[in-house]
Amino acid sequence: MKIPNQAESYSTSSIILENTFQGIRQLAKNEQLAELIFSESQNAIMITDRCNRIIDVNAAFERITGYTRREVLHHNPNFLSSGRHTRAFYRDMWQSLVEQGKWRGELVNRRKDGELLPELLSLFLLRDGKGDITHHVAIFSDLTRLKKHAEELHLASHFDALTLLPNRHQMLRRIREAISEASPQTTFAVCVLDLDNFQQLNRQLGHRAADNVLIAIAEKLRERVGTQGDVARIGGDEFALLLHDVDSGDDQLQQMTESFLLEGFTATPLVIKASMGVTLFPLDNADPDTLLRHADQAMYQAKLQGGNTFAFFDPDHEQKLKDQQAVREDITHAIKAGEFELHFQPQVDTQSQRLLGAEALIRWHHPKRGLVMPDQFLPQISGTEIELALDTWVLNAALDQLSKWHADGLMISVSINATPQSIVRESFYKTLLQALTAHPSLAPQFICIEVLESVALDDLSAATSMLNRLREIGLQVALDDFGTGYSSLSYLRNLPVDLVKIDRSFVMTMLESAQDLAIVESVTYLAKRFGKGVVAEGVESCAHIDKLKLIGCDVVQGYGVAKPMPAEELFAWSQTAGLPSGLMKNLPLT
Ligand code: C2E
Ligand code: CA
Ligand code: CA
What we know:
The protein is an alpha/beta fold. The protein folds into three domains: 6-149, 2-Layer Sandwich (Beta-Lactamase), CATH 3.30.450; 159-313, Reverse transcriptase/Diguanylate cyclase domain (Alpha-Beta Plaits), CATH 3.30.70; 324-581, TIM Barrel (Alpha-Beta Barrel). It is built from 22 helices and 22 strands. Strand 4 and strand 5 (133-142) form a beta hairpin. It is globular and about 85 Å long. The two termini are 13 Å apart. 34% of the residues are buried. Mean pLDDT is 88; it is low at 1-18 and 580-590.
């Protein structure tokens, strides 16, 4: 999907300025132009003479540093120094300036009011015909907002705002650390603890008091776990525990599920019971995600046993393998029997209100089970050959459909999900080329491949090079479910993607949760700063759309626009303006 990219001009403005400035001497005739650039630039510009005394600064300099022009004239710029850098840092900077005539990098200075000023700085040395230094020119932009957003994103995506416990992502990280530090003698338990009848309590006490109950329980859990492990809040009334040096006979586990007695909420102390699922590493020798999922499954067993107890996950590999084998055979058969279908969910431009594209989402019409959603069969084939076969089927089916739409005059794009395992495989790339060859009339920029951040985990350079190859043949690449994985600023900056899709778990709740709103705002801000388009998914209402528009999000996708639908319905939908009032006012969709 091609998005009008206002961000490009944003992030490249300082480069344009640099180039412009180099050209200023040639443009000396055109002093008016130089003057205009100097006075109107959003970046601070400071010019010093050959002895490095300030001879001019522009308005942006005054705004960013807080010093007036009059205050700084004839001074050496070292009054801006924050003391944050070593002598060696400045020495290297000057050396490169003298040798190469320029230097570019990040630096922390200090404003007049004492605040630190992180800046992206470009320095240039100008020389006369004889090679003697005549001027130094410094051009810098203020990185304060960028840094602040990056910090907020880190905080918001690692901690739960209500209880201040680490959140799910953070717990996954700690489990990963525990695995990597484990010696052959190490055992630890991953547990999921869920309060019994919390919904009922919520109704009885009201939302606010129920929140306080959660805070109190978080505190008690933290005390119970002590220095033996970690506690995180991973859902409404769901907590995850990582307990070191625990085996199945340990009464530590028993202690965790003892009833919680809370004073001060009701006339008599409130008794809260909980159910807990436990899985033991290395008996269950799985990755962090799977360990949590196993503990969650065991927690349901504890609930089934009547609650207020704990149950172990049974890593009955034999059975699991048999089940997986059966699913694989089923799916191989289903591909041949034509039991799969793609549904499509519209993606709409928030500004122009046009239908830009649709995400292809797979559905399985199972002869016995009826309509089966992807979450119920994709995880079982993760990392297997059959997964690649299914991805290939999806690719071809999506391109077939796109060709039909284009032939019918519906010039939209299609987004295709690719699993991290298949995307890096040469065979996937080949399949893609074949599919493109089979549809010569399709322009590649109408095809967007959605990948998860975890694609970068195993082999960052392999992922980067494959994504680059996709983009070289003209495809768009989107980073899916952003915010749930590692929310890493470096992935956002370094992975070669055109678009960032903010995960629906944040978007759906952004109107009620200040924390989730902060994540949506920060991801949007950062993505734009890095020159990427932003798609919000899980947009459930007009109020969401209005807010996202304000935040500057480019594209929306979600039940509030339309649910995923069969291809024929999408065509009809695009013709009848089935969009929510408020978003669409008699505007043609395409
Ligand atoms: P995803 O890529 O994040 O896809 C978006 C999911 O969010 C879809 O679920 C969609 O129906 C749902 N959704 C969209 N708007 C809303 C909303 O406003 N509220 C809520 N609550 N949900 C919304 P679906 O179709 O069940 O797909 C689930 C996941 O399965 C997808 O998540 C994707 O990871 C995977 N998947 C689906 N189709 C394919 C496929 O063809 N290939 C691969 N590799 N993965 C697929
Ligand atoms: Ca997706
Ligand atoms: Ca997604």
